Amino acid sequence: MPSLDQLVAFCDRRVRVRDIADFPGAFNGLQAANSGRVTKIGAAVDASVGSFALATAAGVDFLIVHHGMFWDGAQPITGGQQIRLKTLFDADCAVYSSHLPLDAHPQIGNNALIARALGLKVSDWAIPYQGTPIAAVVGKSPTRAKLKSQLTKLFPRGITAIEFGPSQPRKLGIISGSGSSCVAQLAGAGIDTLITGELKQSAFNAAQEAGLNLFVCGHYATEVFGVCALAKECAARFHVPWEFLDTGCPL
Q1: Burial 2-29 (b: 16+ CB within 10 A, else e)
Q2: pTM of the model
Q3: How many other CB atoms sit within 10 Å of the CB of residue 79?
């Protein structure tokens, strides 16, 4: 039975948690401790009451999440916040969060794993955030039609295709989660086709003006890959079971 400290140290090293700058509120690393031992690992996209309830039911006492507990800043521990934290503490479950470190990781990051799931090879990384390139770049892309078909199968809850770019993409970018802030940077990186999770409405007009293909596959759906990969590696390293906790978020 591994200790909590062992799991945290392994995760910190694997995702280089101290080396990668992130958005305010991310607080990557251990966010909540348990009593010190780990018997089962869980993976979830969000540190939500739904995830915590599923962890309780599954007997998970070390939960790896992508979106951690502190995105909204300090809040009174009342109402929904009280329910969420009580659910977590009653389960004696630790929470470990990894946001951008688990988007940009070249082996177990969301973007790299989406490329792998599509049978594509990452040739480069682009669009840096505070020094860390977060967009996986594929130099040899299938046709737009084939890519759309592959994405429809990979993300069965549905995708949105905005097709103003070339039918044969020259350079494909992959940015899991929200790609809204990156759309304006695509042309400068030579990217004409983007796979992402979520976009603002204005991206439609930007794509038309810049001649881009944008494939929107769901914020949640594009960010299940990394937490599962890290949980699987932890489970293999420390010989404990793991489970993905799917809250069914459709967004």
Answers
A1: bebeebbebbbebbebeebebeeebebb
A2: 0.96
A3: 9
Q: Are 179 and 196 a contacting pair, CB within 8 Å?
A: yes
Token pair listed for 222: 């594009």
Alpha-carbon separation of residue 110 from 107, 117, 160 (angstroms): 9, 10, 19
Q: What number of other Cβ atoms are within 10 A of residue 147's Cβ?
A: 21
Q: What spatial distance separates the first Cα and last Cα of the chain, rounded to whole Å?
A: 36
- Residue 114 is classified by DSSP as H
Q: What CA–CA distance (Å, rounded) separates 121 from 137?
A: 8
As a whole number of angstroms, the distance between CA 184 and CA 77 comes to: 39
pLDDT by 10s per residue, the chain, length 251: 899 999 999 999 999 999 999 998 999 999 999 999 999 999 999 999 999 999 999 999 999 999 999 988 888 999 999 999 999 999 999 999 999 999 999 999 999 999 999 999 999 999 999 889 999 999 999 999 999 999 999 999 999 999 999 999 999 999 999 999 999 999 999 999 999 999 999 999 999 999 999 999 999 999 999 999 999 999 999 999 999 999 999 99
* 140-145: long-range pairs with CB below 8 Å, 24+: 141/168, 141/169, 141/170, 141/171, 141/172, 141/193, 143/167, 143/168, 143/169, 144/168, 144/169, 144/193, 144/213
